[in-house]
Specification:
Strand content: under 5%
Order of helices and strands: HHHHH
Number of strands: 0
Number of domains: 1
Helix content: over 70%
Distance between the termini: 42 Å
Shape: globular
Structural class: mainly alpha
């Protein structure tokens, strides 16, 4: 029972703060592990997969999923992810790193502006 509670917390955390944590996670992969941006996308997807699957299961069991929309979004996300993965290889790594750092700085500015009244 505790593992289900832990899994549910992981799923909630991934859904609530996925945008910021995903961005910082990619930056950590690039800077600390010294891997490429493309590899960080794959590693990030593999790490988030169990929490995503568990979130879908729990939300589905609670009856909170509108299934026709769910499948449409799932198929659209798969096609979009495949498109991005195929075409992002054409962009040089230095531009991807600069774009990621810009995104992080903008996200930090957004967080700070929300804290400071």
């Amino acid at each position: 029972m505790e593992i289900l509670q832990f899994g549910h917390l992981v799923g909630v955390y991934g859904n609530v703060s996925g945008v910021g944590s995903g961005t910082f996670q990619k930056f950590a992969f690039l800077s600390m592990l010294r891997i490429s941006f493309i590899e960080s996308l794959g590693i990030d997807s593999i790490i988030a997969l169990p929490a995503g699957i568990f979130s879908i299961i729990v939300t589905g069991m609670a009856g909170l999923i509108v299934w026709p929309y769910f499948f449409a979004i799932l198929i659209g996300a798969f096609i979009g992810g495949h498109f991005v993965a195929r075409h992002i290889r054409k962009v040089p790594e230095k531009y991807l790193r600069a774009l990621l750092i810009t995104l992080i700085l903008l996200y930090l500015a957004y967080l700070i502006s929300g804290i400071v009244p």
